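Take a record.
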Amino acid sequence: MQENVVYKAIKDGESVFNQRADKDIERNRKGNFELLLFDKEGNKIENANVEVKLKNIDFNFGANIFMLGQYDDEERNRLFEEKFCKLFNSAAVPLYWEGTEPEKGLLRYDADTKTEVYRRPPADKVMEFCLKHNIRMKGHPLFWHEFIPRWLPDDFSELKPYIEKRFKEISERYKDVFERFDVVNEPSRIYDVYMRDRRNPNAKYIVPEDDYCLWIFDLANRYFPNNTLILNDTVQASFTEFCGKYSGYYLNIKDLLNRGARIDEIGMQCHLGDNGPQKVYNSEMLYDVLDTYATLGKPINVSEVSIPSKFGGEVDEELQALAAERLYKVCFSHPSVTGITWWNMPDDGVLTTKRVAFDENLPSTGLIDGDYNEKAAYKTLNKLINTEWTTELTVPAVDGLAAFRGFFGEYDITIRFGDKKVKETVKLKKGATQFKKLFI
């Protein structure tokens, strides 16, 4: 493993990591459940064994699903689906305006749409896949000033009716299926001239009004009353420029909340290069950022994560795996964090851009390499998510009571006594010890 600034930052934060991570996971992500077992006559059931298996953890381990069905090679399409479902329970569904309506009136939501847009599978197709595999969905994004179709007007006041029409269409299709939406994406970059050339010199780019976030969140509140609404901003805004409660992103959120914006979650992007920002690689600094934003009283969604597997031009998959493990453990341990979304799962699924620094599109930031082999980071996350952070055990019923401690989430329960087998589903939620009486 290379002795570089990334490894040094990881080592510098190791003491706080060791003090907090595992202890806080036990404290913040697990709870106690007691089953009281009775027969039909109300007698306590003895000599029963209760099998407990976590089915859906109460945390979003996600990735973008932009490469679903995007390969000419059907075997690679199959592998993408297999690797995705093995690791993730949540998907960021592409709703970029250029991909949903590339030409005025030409909507690309239907699964059988004939108009192809790379890395933009139709939302209906993604929805069908996610429902089949019990994967939660987040729409990304409802509004972004980039990746705008060229037919839209440049003036934001003229654009507003089109935005409302778009929100109405998305609401009618997906508000009852998607859990959450990134409502506004990267507001800190609306005046970043460099970003206007992300794809090509003629790329469409909208400069909204200064107060556009408040207007758009009010609109989202009307069309998505029961969905989680997220304000999502860059790694620079979230981490690089962090200076406590004087951070620009912190103050922006606080101001919007004070003026009545319904922001349900704080989205914090985490796209990392091979030498920073240290506030993420160093666990002590990362805890400081999360603790500070938690004082706003809103959950935190670590919305886009990428960590390279090349450092200083040299491949180092073990360092990528170590950095990913630290990031995931810190975030999973923190009580305010609701989910983590790795951005590009495969190396060959990144968007080609001219950027070379802290970018989700660095070609080594995938968890799967170019030959579709699992990198060390994929294997590390798989061990955490599917082995360490799950609950599967068998407990005996003593005097009619079967008790267990496990991760918060939905459980399949199988009760065996004598020649009987009874199946139940229970939900272990945050709070005091929960009870359930079963008459079987």
In short: The mean pLDDT is 93. The domain at 5-23+53-388 is CATH 3.20.20.80 (TIM Barrel). The radius of gyration is 23 Å.
